[in-house]
Amino acid sequence: MFKRLLFTAAVLALAANFGYADQAKTKMTLQITKVTSTSGKQMYANYCTPCHGIDGRGHGPVAPALKTPPTDLTVLSRTHGGKFPDAHVVTVLEKGAEIGPRPSTLMPVWGPILGKMDQTEPQDRLLRICNLSRYLDTIQSK
Predict the structure, then answer these.
(1) Which positions ≥6 away from 4 have C-beta within 8 Å?
(2) Long-range pairs for 91-98 at CB < 8 Å and ≥24 separation?
(3) What residues form DSSP beta bridges with 99?
(4) Which helix (H) or strand (E) covers residue 102, if one does?
(5) How many domains in the chain?
(6) Are 10 and 61 spatial neighbours (Cβ–Cβ below 8 Å)?
(7) Residue 101, Cβ neighbours under 10 Å: how many?
(8) Torsions phi, psi for 83 (to 5 deg)
(9) Closest alpha carbon to 36 in 98, 114, 140, 137
(10) Which of 77, 111, 137, 139 lies in the 20 to 30 Å Cα band around 83?
(11) What are 132's strand-pairing partners?
């Protein structure tokens, strides 16, 4: 299982490296492998690890190629007054990060992508996003 996870992360990182090398001119498309909606940890490993890293600190294999470093996801609670910002995380996953007056395209907006995975079960998109947010809550540094 761990070897499969590392292989998947390596493939995504390699693909992302080619696409993110010049963000201003290049738009990248990643093939997303559908994973169970009940495992936030598995979704994180598949969708977030290339940029944010296995530990969530923003040092994934794609991070050096990005113009804007990925957010350290382990300090979200600390930067929001000691409380995990669940609603903010859900909004970022659904609509993108707010940088300046409009949403940023630097981080993929997962809401539509996750929704397309389960077109027969529309509530599954929200389940996926909520479970991913709950997992991020578990990796907060103390």
Answers:
(1) none
(2) 93/129, 93/132, 93/133, 94/129, 97/71
(3) 102
(4) strand 102-103
(5) 1
(6) yes
(7) 5
(8) -120, 135
(9) 114
(10) 111
(11) none
Tokens of 102: 């409009």
User: Which tens digits make up the pLDDT trace of 4-40?
Assistant: 554 455 545 545 554 444 444 445 555 566 676 788 9
C-alpha span between 8 and 99 (Å, rounded)? 30
Domain of 46, in residue numbers: 2-138
Taking only the tens place, the pLDDT of each residue in 75-100 is: 999 999 999 999 999 888 877 776 55
CATH assignment at residue 54: 1.10.760
Q: Which helix (H) or strand (E) holds 98?
A: strand 98-99
Contacts of 97 (CB under 8 A, 6+ apart): 71, 103, 104, 106, 107
pTM (2 d.p.): 0.68
Only one residue has tokens 């909004």, namely 91
* pLDDT at residue 43, as a whole number: 87
Pick the closest to residue 51 from 16, 91, 90 (CA basis).
Answer: 16
pLDDT single digits (tens) 28-77: 555 566 676 788 999 899 888 988 999 999 999 988 888 888 899 999 99
